[in-house]
């Protein structure tokens, strides 16, 4: 009898705990959510995060607070997100650098992008541009290539930190051109762009989201875009193929992740909120005006993002290791 009573109490306790957990998940979110952006404010990842999180917050009924955690090419913020509580109240806007390229760049990476996170969904694709300061001595990409080859040890190439998109995509460019410029790291693409605008550095490879306003204002120059087609936002900027460097094809992406073990119901609520944001006309216009690529329905959601991360790790690892 005592054993039966004991078992009954245990079952009752388990049922209460299970019900409580399920109730907590169904009530999610009940307070503010923090979205870690692993780069400085003003950079492309930060811009995309603020655009989509604003709409997601309205769908979820809670404020989403942006927290910029800079350092180590975005891996400082990504590591912090991986160690955060898996209750759905901390997420990260990661990107190709933090969740793919970093695997090859950092021997002692504190997290595994394809293991230590629950994928939520792809937020935006971002084509890469080859950019220079406004008075760079070249009139087109062919002259840029010739000048860089002749003067590469004297030129300063800006990037947002080892492992960042601006770093890895310029590694690819350096590999193709067989040059080794002076690499100048910054705590984010925003500060790197400011240095380019100010003429303190010579060139960089950057995501279109961060560059369009400066290109349109004439404060920097864009020699080519690393995609098969021109961007409707920058119709006068030729593709790398058109400009004579077809080997250089580069595009990045931003996506939302939650810490490993975040309940599936919670990640699905986040994914649904992101999906609604990407379908909103105002959000779409803001992203498209910046030159972003909005993922179609077949590229959204946790499963598609998980597949993308694994594929990107496989793609970038050999490229980076061959050029380190």
TrEMBL record:
Pfam families: TctC. It comes from the Bacteria. Keywords: Signal. The keyword Signal applies. InterPro entries: BUG, Bug_dom1. Residues 1-24 form the signal peptide. The keyword Chloroplast does not apply. Belongs to the UPF0065 (bug) family. This is Tripartite tricarboxylate transporter substrate binding protein BugD. It comes from Pseudolabrys taiwanensis.
